[in-house]
């Protein structure tokens, strides 16, 4: 049985991660961390009924991970928190499933260095849904055929999302850029901004949109739009908990969703 802890347990993703851990075979909840509701039963906080796991203060993370015999921490919080918490987790010899987005290259290096120096296992993915990871493959193929078309990435999310553009939109642009041997990115356009051959990246925020990503390949007299729409955050939460089960039996290292999905 794998012991899993959740950080940001009372967040939108945190609650769904708890639900998936409870429902999935082979994994159980060992600890939960948050900034609020410290000492309360996390199941009651998340309105899932009593789970006999209390919300712990992030300041006590190293001790709590040890005492609870946690094998893996699933982190969907905010980049500034993950970059502090992930090294504590890795230094405790515990594996990591990171869903947080919005890392700078420097923050990402700090996290990867912590996993590598401790010889632990981790996965850092901007999107744990099966569909989005297939969407990335379709983008690679489409870019090969339409390499000289104008390419624009457009994402839309709910009005509470803190980071922009989304991690998924950034990864979509990277996947296309890698396929085409390197492309510049431009974020939105305003004023005198004639189009060059760069990839445009655009963020829309409104209402309760779970997560839409569209990539437009536009030519002289036609266009193709490749689109993914998430209907529920469960697409992400179930993928993350399945990843936590998968990495428990993996060799130390940093994995991608391609490894987990067998692509
Ligand atoms: N990879 C994927 O598949 C997906 C990734 N995401 C990403 O996951 C992240 C979280 O999204 P979402 O759940 O919507 O956001 P929420 O704001 O709903 O949840 C984040 C939670 O983390 C808490 N938190 C903040 N700082 C810390 C800290 N230092 N230690 C522990 N907890 C902390 C927040 O507390 P408080 O509210 O008090 O600040 C909040 O409860 C985002 O980066 C988002 O982009 C989201 C969906 C899918
Ligand atoms: O914050 C969200 O909600 C989401 N964030 C992820 C991202 O930034 O790509 C994934 C998903 O689109 C939902």
UniProtKB/TrEMBL annotation:
Domain Dihydrodipicolinate reductase C-terminal residue range list: 131-261
Residues that, per the record, bind (S)-2,3,4,5-tetrahydrodipicolinate: 158, 167-168
PROSITE patterns: DAPB (PS01298)
GO biological process: diaminopimelate biosynthetic process; lysine biosynthetic process via diaminopimelate
Binding annotation for NAD(+): 8-13, 99-101, 125-128
Name of the protein in question: 4-hydroxy-tetrahydrodipicolinate reductase
Pfam families linked: DapB_C (PF05173), DapB_N (PF01113)
InterPro entries per UniProt: DapB_C, DapB_N, DapB_N_CS, DHDPR_bac, NAD(P)-bd_dom_sf
Assembly and binders: Homotetramer.
GO cellular component: cytoplasm
Enzyme Commission numbers on file: 1.17.1.8
Subcellular location: Cytoplasm
